Amino acid sequence: MIFYSLILVPIIALWLWWPLHRPARRAFWWALTATMVLGALPALLILAMRQTTLSYQVIAHLQVGSGLVLSAIVLSILLALLRDLAWLLSWKAGWRRLAQGLRQPLWTVAGATLALLVSAYGVLQALKVPEVRTQEITLPRLPAELDGLRMAVIADIHASPVNNARYVQALVDRTQAARPDLIVLPGDMVDGDVATQAANIAPLAQLQAPYGVWFAPGNHEYYSGYNAWAKEFRRLGLHYLENQTERLQIRGRTLAISGLGDPAYGRLSNQNDNPAVAEGLPPDIAAVQQQAQGADVHLLLAHQPKPARDYAQHGVDLQIAGHTHGGHIRGLDQLLIAPANNGYVRGLYQVGPMQLFVSSGAGLWAGFAVRLGVPSSIDLLVLRSPAATAKP
Questions:
Q1: pLDDT on residue 4
Q2: Which of 50, 117, 280, 284 is most enclosed, with most CB atoms within 10 A?
Q3: Is residue 272 a contact partner of residue 279, using CB atoms and an 8 Å limit?
Q4: 99, 96, 117: which is closest to 107 by C-alpha?
Q5: What is the pLDDT of residue 204?
Q6: Rg (the chain; Cα; Å)
């Protein structure tokens, strides 16, 4: 972040505002300074968090503004790229009047304003409580007796002073209204430590389903004080799976549901009593495969979709993941998010013999609370059996 603030932001600001340099020199310097100060906001927030000069209540809300600015800068870069590319092509084509028009400061100011307004809209979309979205998934090994099983997925709440208890309560109410048969929470339920954020996540204790509420950790559980949160989740009555499998007897058939540790294991939390010791467990797919042997169908809660190709080789029928937040911004999702997650961003994928469902998430990390064309969701997965659908 320090490199980003000291090197990249000034370069980006100069590139964005260069059309103002000659015709509006004073405006150029004001715009340049404002862009550099705002662009440094993420680094300043990290410094404040490390020095604990501000409470997390304040920092979380400042993070939302920081994410808005970051989104506006990214969109402004794209507009600046289009502006300069159009100018270059016009100049090469001999369209001098068009080329000169593209260098007018008005276009740059209008583009930056548009980027800011679009980003503000993206923040409003990100902070909305999501709707329940239903999707059917056909699993080749699903017995006919389990056809129509309804599973609610609540991923990536990131409960915080922004996604607070009222927000989480709304998620719970909408999930319960959908009347799922079981509920799964594939990680990243919290941001911040138990002492300050337990009240914001407390409504999850109200979740109920005939075949249980099942939870596997995500990377933010590791960052936020893993051991303390694991204890708190269990106190709330949630079935917390750490490289563990439970075998559920449903309509005379056996459904195995497993939860893995997260690859973030080893990245030390600021909330550890002993910061030299990593908390939690690394993922152990072989262990849950062994525990699930003999089940009719095997569902895996594993927060990050990136290792899906490995998980697919271990007898899993359906992996349920989150982590990507659906890519945040449609169009940039394939450019920025997909490469970091082996191409998995949101929705349903066939990964060898396994299917992978990546939720867009029911919340958002306050540090980049922006959604454009990628709404958050509470996912209701209706499992379908080929044997049942094939009957006349």
A1: 63
A2: 280
A3: yes
A4: 99
A5: 97
A6: 24
Residue 373 CA to its chain's centroid (Å): 14
Task: Please name the amino acid found at residue 189.
Answer: M
CA angle centred on 223, ends 219 and 237, rounded to 5°: 75
| Percentage helix, strand, coil for the chain under 3-state DSSP, each rounded to 5 | 45, 15, 35
Q: What are the average pLDDT values for consecutive 10-residue runs of the chain, which has 392 residues?
A: 70 84 81 82 71 78 86 87 88 83 82 92 95 96 96 97 96 98 96 92 97 96 91 95 96 96 77 66 95 96 97 97 95 90 96 97 91 96 86 54
The confidence score (pLDDT) of residue 271 equals: 58
Separation in Å, CA 71 to CA 9, 16, 30, 156, 370: 13, 15, 20, 20, 7
- In a 13 Å sphere around the CA of 297, the CA atoms on its Cβ side amount to 26
Neighbouring-strand partners of residue 129: none
Give the strands of the sheet with 377-384, arranged side by side: 131-138, 377-384, 149-153, 182-185, 213-215, 239-240
Contact 256, 301 (CB under 8 A): no
In the three-class reduction of DSSP (H, G, I as helix; E, B as strand; rest coil), residue 297 is classed as strand
Helix (H, G, I), strand (E, B) or coil at 340: helix
Look at the chain and count its residues. Answer: 392
Q: How far apart are CA 113 and CA 130, in angstroms?
A: 28
Q: Are residues 1 and 42 in contact, defined by beta-carbon separation less than 8 angstroms?
A: yes
Query: What local confidence, expressed as pLDDT, does residue 59 receive?
Result: 82
The predicted pLDDT at position 321 comes to 98
What is the Cα–Cα distance from 101 to 110, expressed in whole angstroms? Answer: 13
What pLDDT was estimated at residue 342? Answer: 94
Q: Which residues of 60-76 are buried (b: 16+ CB within 10 A; e: fewer)?
A: bebbbebbbbbbbbbbb
Contact 321, 356 (CB under 8 A): yes
